[in-house]
Amino acid sequence: MARRAPRHAEAARNDHALLEAAKKVLAVDGAHASVATIAARAGVGIASLYRRYRSKDELFQHLCALALDQWIRVAERGLEHDDPWEGLAHYIEACVEFSGGALGPLAGTIAVTDEMSAKFTRSDELLGRLVARAHEAGALRPDASAMDISLLIEQLGKSPLIDQLDRQGRGDLIDAARSARKRTIAIALDGLRPRHPRLPGTAPSPTLLSERWEHALAESPKQP
Amino acid sequence: MARRAPRHAEAARNDHALLEAAKKVLAVDGAHASVATIAARAGVGIASLYRRYRSKDELFQHLCALALDQWIRVAERGLEHDDPWEGLAHYIEACVEFSGGALGPLAGTIAVTDEMSAKFTRSDELLGRLVARAHEAGALRPDASAMDISLLIEQLGKSPLIDQLDRQGRGDLIDAARSARKRTIAIALDGLRPRHPRLPGTAPSPTLLSERWEHALAESPKQP
DNA sequence: CTTAAACGGATAATTTCACTTCGTTTGAGA
DNA sequence: TCTCAAACGAAGTGAAATTATCCGTTTAAG
């Protein structure tokens, strides 16, 4: 087995730094994050990125799979909670916190791997159980569906203000922005409790969030 | 005064179409919306854009001024409401509705004109009155400040899902997404009513939202 | 008809991007 | 201590995108 890893440790460290940087840059720059920016933020050369991932898309796919793992893990921990409401609330807070919404802009720009869709299904199932449990306990307003929760997480997941302060290098204000956001999240969570007037319309269809990952259709038919 | 406007009507129509298109494209493409895309969406040539605005920035500044007008008008209408809560709720819904959040990504990328900052001040003052009135009537949770409301509007103002469906040309799903969003907004509004546990931390400072418009600092010091 | 104002799209100049190539550095095993 | 494959960073490359200008054409008021 000998002679395999002259600089194995550094390689592993770089891989981790790359994924961390990609997540951050994706959150700040949106769908047009560039590989150069990601590599720079990770403090590595561009070649190190391409040594590990054959293309930008492959990096992003891997990132999605990891994020889905995180969602699944958080949902499982939520289900372990004795209090159904606390379990759901912690799930929502955690999903929002680790900027899961950052991957939203990727939808439609990369192909969905089998691994991704399997994890997507699993994550959905766990959320369904979290929500059902909260409904049974009367801890969640009865007219709020799992889809409503997913959309709420998506809506809260991105923080335009924090992302922009980040881009401007205003590190001094970011703490304030972060705790301000905690309050916004708390307001939304309070809105999920029972004893509120009925929500408008009917619960949104679950296809809304899955269809978006289909590859984009032709946009501008160009004819000569 | 004769001989002044051979094609005045068309010019006015184009101007309107340009602003409408710019708002839409800005919402969908974010800060890197291109003039070509805007002109195409408006159905006019690029030259028509540059005939009216000396630069991309000037167009965006004008757009900001118009959006601020809209905010001010909506706040004034909110104050006309007899019911303080209804007034505030309609204000929030309206601000979220006309995608005021679409201008968030512009912050820091264009210079702030005097006109803009004057309108910003006026808008802030009106929101302050709306919130104070709701507080006095006990219709708004006492621990929610005007800043919290502004941040909530900002957070709800962008809809990643709708923007993306738009980009993909999935017009069939947009209605569903829009009514789903109405529910998310309703949840957040319910979270603003009284009789909820206290919000975490203290009310965020108002400087948070004004400082972001300062021009970005130097980011990457390049030396030869 | 005349003509000034407005039009749209091809075009230029610059920038940005994904990806490659290449010479250098590193550290585990002999 | 010495070797060498694996890993590294950064300059380089061609294609695509972007802002803004130029120019021949169209329109409608007088």
Radius of gyration of chain A: 20 Å
Poorly predicted tracts of residues of chain A: 217-224
Number of structural units classed as domains of chain A: 1
Q: Which architecture of chain A would the CATH scheme give at its second level?
A: Orthogonal Bundle
Q: Regarding quaternary structure, how should these chains be classified?
A: homodimer
Helix-and-strand structural type of chain A: mainly alpha
Largest sheet of chain A: none
For the record, give the distance between the C-alpha atoms at the N and C termini of chain A, rounded to a whole number.
Answer: 60 Å
Rounded average pLDDT of chain A: 89
CATH superfamily of chain A: Tetracycline Repressor, domain 2
Provide the helix percentage of chain A: 55-70%
Strand content of chain A: under 5%
Q: Secondary-structure element sequence of chain A?
A: HHHHHHHHHH
Tally of contiguous helical segments of chain A:
10
The most extensive contact between chains is:
A-B, 59 and 59 residues
The overall strand count of chain A is: 0
CATH class category of chain A: Mainly Alpha
And the CATH topology of chain A? Answer: Tetracycline Repressor, domain 2
Shape of chain A: globular
Pfam family, one (chains A, B): TetR_C_43
Domain HTH tetR-type (chains A, B): 12-71
Keywords (chains A, B): DNA-binding, Transcription, Transcription regulation
DNA-binding region (chains A, B): 34-53
